[in-house]
Design brief:
mainly beta, four-stranded antiparallel sheet, globular
């Protein structure tokens, strides 16, 4: 604040925090609201410099939270017991959505937000141990399944990130995959494909639509501007193109 770092206490020392899974800051009436999801101890919320703990409602033994995202003032939590929603300080399971999932063991969650003709169109992406899909308008759609993602019981969380192009990157610290909504066959990304290492710990799409991959061996960027190759199989009259003209924005004429 005012170009200076400020520190915030993590609450009473008698309250164990455990492993941090998700972190978010939003503003209400100009004041920050901190929300921190922990793996097994619930959700910490700081409002007006006051911390409170919301215990997660995971009922079965061994329950844990694997991810958290925010849309508006609501939070969605991924867990090994399905998806939960945190709203107005109350956490409830999304039973109708959980019943649609291949299984309820989730390792990652993310959201893509865009404005549609009828308002915001949010798509919540979910990653299981061997499947990936999304929820939109209360309906779950499976994108791909059966891919050989390595899982280790020591690491219960993964990463997932989708771009406006329809590209989806997902995996964990051991492996990273890529697929497209129009071609939902997962392809492995790693050293052989030009990355500095295998797997990913963090994924992000920036405001210029570049995709960033953070891993154990550094940082990689997949730029939004990439080559598009077209030939006769795509509708050109001939593979040899000798002239090009943009007759109006977004409309082109090519000569052979």
């Amino acid at each position: 604040r005012n170009n200076k770092w400020e520190t915030y206490s993590m609450g009473p020392k008698t309250s164990p925090v455990g492993e941090l899974i998700g972190f978010d800051v939003r503003y209400e009436a100009g004041e920050p609201v901190f929300v921190i999801a922990t793996s097994e101890n619930g959700i910490l919320i700081n409002e007006k410099s006051h911390w409170r703990m919301i215990r997660h409602p995971l009922t079965r033994p061994g329950g844990y939270i694997s991810g958290m995202i925010r849309t508006g003032a609501s939070y969605f939590l991924a867990s090994n017991q399905g998806v939960f929603k945190l709203e107005n300080g109350v956490v409830n399971p999304l039973t109708e959505i959980n019943q649609q999932l291949p299984d309820q063991t989730l390792v990652a969650i993310s959201v893509t937000e865009k404005c549609g003709p009828k308002g915001p169109e949010n798509r919540i992406w979910l990653l299981g141990k061997h499947w990936i899909g999304f929820v939109q308008q209360g309906k779950f759609s499976l994108l791909a399944s059966g891919f050989p993602m390595t899982n280790d019981t020591s690491y219960q969380t993964g990463v997932i990130c989708a771009s406006e192009r329809g590209n989806v990157y997902f995996g964990n610290r051991f492996q990273l995959f890529y697929c497209n909504e129009n071609n939902p066959v997962p392809q492995k990304l790693g050293r052989e494909e030009g990355l500095t290492g295998e797997g990913a710990l963090a994924l992000m799409v920036d405001r210029e639509k570049n995709t960033w991959i953070g891993g154990l061996r550094g940082l990689a960027c997949i730029p939004f501007t990439r080559f598009i190759n077209l030939n006769m199989s795509d509708g050109l009259y001939d593979n040899e193109v000798s002239s090009a003209l943009e007759i109006r924005p977004g409309e082109y004429v090519f000569g052979h």
